[in-house]
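Form P-L/3: holo structure prediction, ligand magnesium ion.
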Amino acid sequence: MNKKGFIFDLDGVIVDTAKYHFLAWKKLANSVGVDFTETQNEQLKGVSRKKSLEKILKWGNKSLSEDEFSKLMSLKNEDYLSYVNNMDESEILPDVPKILNFLIEEKQPIALGSASKNARTILEKVNLLSKFNTIVDGNGVAKGKPNPEVFLTAAKNLGIKADKCIVFEDAKAGIEAANAANMVSIGIGEKDVLQNADYVFKDFTEISEEFITELIKN
Ligand code: B16
Ligand code: MG
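OUTPUT (holo model):
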């Protein structure tokens, strides 16, 4: 049977944690006198925690000592985790379990490829951890998206060649990473944002089992 590597991003693909990142970043930015909007939050999708804080400080024209910088990073994460702690299965995005179960039935290897250092905690919270053959997250890679390292590591862990992998991503930086890894890129979200993806769907309710079967065959 044909085997492909199916790699899923986490935030924005499996769960919508961007809303919690927004609340936590906004509180933090405002506490140091910096404004933070939803539009700016969009630009942080798929971007690591450290790079995100660097961007926020740049937008607000602020510079901090190294100590203050790491203190703010921990404060942001503590606040973010207070939302994550209340998560449960009801926060899984529509039809995600259906697609995962279909791939498992079809004996296709499945990986998580996320920039988040909280990926395992979140998957445990929503009870999906056991669906993945490997988890590659912000703790396991040196270079963040758009660098392809996260997806190439996932492919290696699955034992599947990069050009036989399919990536589901909601962030522009993630689509660029998948393309750079020579993988099939599937955007989950808006066509105008994810214009470099090979395919774009609004969400998983638009993805049929026939479409997945074709991906497995070709
Ligand atoms: P953490 P993904 C990314 O996750 C988020 O999209 C991004 O907004 C966040 O800053 C990043 O994870 C780091 O998250 O602070 O939990 O380590 O979309 O790559 O799954
Ligand atoms: Mg994402």
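COMMENT: The chain has a mean pLDDT of 97.
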